[in-house]
Protein: ABC transporter ATP-binding protein
Organism: Micromonospora andamanensis
Amino acid sequence: MTVVSDVPDLATLQRRAAERAAARAGGADRLRGHIVCDGLVRIFTSEGVEVVALQGLDLVVDRGELLAIVGASGSGKSTVLNILSGLDTPTAGIARVAGYDLLTMSAAKRLAYRRHTVGFVWQQTGRNLLPYLTARENVELPMRLSRRGGRAARRRAAELLEMVGVGYCADRRPGQMSGGEQQRCAVAVAVANDPEVLFADEPTGELDEVTAGDVFAALRTINAELGVTVVVVTHDLQVASQVRRTVSIRDGRTASEVHRIARLGADGVEELVTEEYAVLDRAGRMQFPAGFVDALALRDRVRLTLETDHVQVRSGDERSAR
Ligand SMILES: Nc1ncnc2c1ncn2[C@@H]1O[C@H](COP(=O)(O)OP(=O)(O)OP(=O)(O)O)[C@@H](O)[C@H]1O
């Protein structure tokens, strides 16, 4: 069993996660679209005022992926996560996770979905762990509640704590552990019942950079070793260096994606490169990264020219066009 300190590089983890996920799914051809959001809309009404939190969000996450959703405060990140985790219902659109239709699901199915298909890690450590139980007892608890107690549960709890690098905390209560250790323990609790998908909402929001890195290492290990699809929501833009794909949300829509991919460099050595993509929705709309808009002072209208293999975008300002 792999422990956090032995974690291999991102590319190796990516391959391992894909292999484990394919094994879970029953073949590599069944990996596509573990999570699908299509034209997802969520409108809140409070005191007669409508707030459009999501306005046609598109997102596809494959089985076994490790994905971060980033965005400024109020961009709609928590709204997406609440919908995907079955806590909230969308107003319109498509939201499907592991074959469950989150719009039409009955209350009984929703409960089963939340108990067995998905796991959660929340920002507040107090929401993840019971303070009067040890780390091992916290991890055992979900299994006991699902009638999977006994020696097997004890063994799995110990293995999971080792896997996320806090095996040495097994007999400590949360109050005797650091914030980072508690969050890694929370990751073990979240996957105790072997969910297909793990959602984490700002899991490192209360941690410093180094400790946050340990928590991400734990999430990567769980993703690679168990083949669990992992979706992390955060406002921390630095997170792109910790995961393979980062989706950025702006104004309730998918704005752009950053992919980290392994490539062979000129010297024959494998290197990780970062590529940024804008997301085109079905109506052909896309959002430019804010940095591009600022750099060229793009405003209101832009001039488009179709070339043989690309589209050129220039300022629509007559003076700068001359
Ligand atoms: N229950 C609600 N009632 C009314 N408006 C809401 C509700 N929940 C969210 N909103 C609004 O929807 C928009 C998106 O909120 P959301 O919490 O998803 O953003 P976020 O990106 O997670 O922000 P943060 O990083 O600050 O948590 C915001 O304008 C917010 O005020």
Q: What stands out?
A: Residues 209-226 form the longest helix (18 residues). The radius of gyration is 21 Å.
